[in-house]
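Protocol step 4 of 5: obtain the predicted structure for the target chain.
Materials: sequence only (see below). No template structures provided, no constraints applied. The aim of this step is simply to have a reference model before the mutagenesis design in step 5. Sequence pasted as it appears in the construct record:
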Amino acid sequence: MESIAVFLMLLVVFLNPFPHTTFLDQLFFYAAILPMIAMAQNKINGFYYKTPLLYPLVLFLFWAALSVVFAMDKPDSAHDLYSHLIRYLIFYLVVINLFTTKKRLLLLAACVVLSEFIFAAGGLILYYGILKHDIVSRFFVKGFKAIATDTIPFGFMFGLFLAVWLFKVCQNRCQRSFLAVAIMVLTISTIATQSRGAVLALCIAFPVQLQYHKKILSLLLLAIILAISLSPMQKRITFQHFKNNARRGLILYSIEIIKDSPVLGTGFSIDTFRNPKFIDKKTYLSRIPKKYGKIPFHRPHNMFLSMATRTGILGMVLYAGIFAVCIFVCCRLILYGKDLFIQSLSRCCLALLTMFLTNGMLQVMTTHFIDMIQFIIFALVTIVWKMNKENLTPAT
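Step 4 output (structure tokens):
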């Protein structure tokens, strides 16, 4: 039963980047839960949940649930509470109870890398090769409504950093050759999206992961700079472009909404922010500079502002506290981990958190695709902490 659950969860993780797979994703997810429920009933003491993230996650869940009670749109808030939080908390618990050995942990990481590599390579061939889009155009910016150009770099970078970690861990030549190709394809795909947040995340997170590999780090950063200088992306990072950026208007607009609902926010619903039944757009536009009046204010392009509008300032602080605990755990394991495997994975997790937070400060974060990446990162941090606590050797 446990092996079946592992296989089903790997399928759920594998399908994450691909659009139009919701039915299969839900099917495999709930099918994987059934054997876990039986396992928990038969061996309740063996079901693990006492992690460093237990209290931060429970506190945030409590506050999010409280925001639903006083939400502007209660039905939609209740739906999003389950769909975007409770469901992924269950996912997190299943993952940390299944992928507890080095072999399974490597399998999980390899699954992410393979999934993102197939999606990236197939996307590049389809978009630029078969559909004949201009090589200088933004990756997936035309003709694919189910794929957001600013969202997919999260997956590419998630696979990229795990591929770099696996490249250092694996010794098999064939595996290392594949990982080298995957690193190249995922880097190219990330830059091809021309997402400024993604490139900034690469430049900040790579030094975290490759602190002691300065030659490789220098080559990667030079390659990124060269790719930017030879692509149209250089026009997107000019001072004038930042000066007139619509995100400034979104930030001001979001702050005005927070001012009116500072304690519990508008409710956990993702769509309340843009629903005219609950948010009078004209009222809030009148409070910000007129030059931002024509911007379509759909959702905040900042993970913490988004959480503050939905759950209030305290909700945002509790949400940030989850990441603070993760960073603290990673730093301790990097310094005091019991073996090189734990230390290297902890450094990779810290790089993943850095990537997620950096890009998350500039993007819309309210999608299932990003939710799963977020909770896989939380699960990886928890698993490596547990391995270190139980003093599992790399051979386990």
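Step 4 remarks: The radius of gyration is 21 Å. The chain has a mean pLDDT of 87.
Proceed to step 5.
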